[in-house]
Write a structure and sequence with these properties.
This protein is α/β, with parallel strands linked by helices. It is built from 8 helices and 9 strands.
């Protein structure tokens, strides 16, 4: 490790496919208006430039690394844990201050009992329905409705009267905190969090992996992981899948 730059040289044996990579490749990351979907910016500074090497699940600053000393977990399985997505999901809960006993809806609108919070990965036309799900019985609530958003359709129509009259709290979530990452690593180490690995492609099969990922069926479950060809025998072969498997 370079003590001045605090960067680590990493040999990648496996890395997960991230939906962010697909969105960037297809130009689905909006900036200031609904018609501008060709770039991605944070705080007026563009973070998307070309040429670009994809791979949102691979980080290099030294403070982004965690040690999981568990020889029973394969590298591909650890990659399937996808800290980017796992930490985002966890942060959706913590930023909304979800507590024990509350009812949480994860990307699906349903009736029945009042929902305390929604973890939204759908967006678009569902946002208004999610709000209705949380606000249809306000007298039964003990806390404000909370909507954590971490993906989905770019454009939603929202009745802002519902938002301010019912005091709905909306949180945009893309990552999480260092403390949340350490908590997730602790759960992994203590086997409270189990990776769900769908399968593995060689790096040389990246185009096939992209097609497989983009056209996956509704029965799809787990992470797709990419393994460098040089690491295939040791880290990828036993988890291999083919593009035909999803047809």
């Amino acid at each position: 490790m370079n003590s001045d730059s605090r960067e680590v040289l990493v040999e990648v044996t496996a890395t997960a496919k991230n939906n962010t990579d697909r969105k960037v490749r297809e130009g689905l990351s909006p900036t200031r208006n609904k018609n501008d979907v060709s770039s991605f910016s944070m705080g007026n500074r563009s973070t998307l430039s070309f040429p670009r090497i994809q791979g949102a699940d691979v980080a290099v600053p030294s403070d982004r690394f965690h040690h999981v000393p568990d020889p029973d977990l394969a590298d591909a399985e650890l990659a399937a844990l996808g800290m980017c997505s796992d930490q985002t999901a966890y942060h959706m809960l913590t930023i909304a201050v979800v507590t024990a006993g509350e009812r949480v809806l994860v990307s699906g609108a349903s009736g029945g009992a009042p929902i305390d919070a929604v973890m939204d990965l759908v967006g678009a036309g569902m946002t208004d329905r999610f709000t209705d799900t949380m606000t249809f019985d306000m007298p039964a609530r003990t806390a404000y409705p909370r909507l954590s958003i971490a993906g989905g359709g770019n454009v939603s129509e929202i009745m802002w009267t519902k938002i301010y009259l019912y005091q709905v709290q909306i949180f945009g979530v893309s990552h999480g905190t260092r403390a949340e990452a350490e908590k997730l690593i602790d759960w992994i180490y203590r086997r409270k969090l189990k990776p769900v690995l769908h399968g593995v492609f060689r790096l040389s099969e990246l185009h096939a992996a992209e097609r497989y990922f983009a056209n996956r069926s509704r029965s799809f479950l787990g992470k797709i992981v990419i393994v460098p060809d040089s690491q295939w025998a040791g880290h990828g072969a036993r988890f291999a899948i083919t593009e035909e498997a999803n047809e």
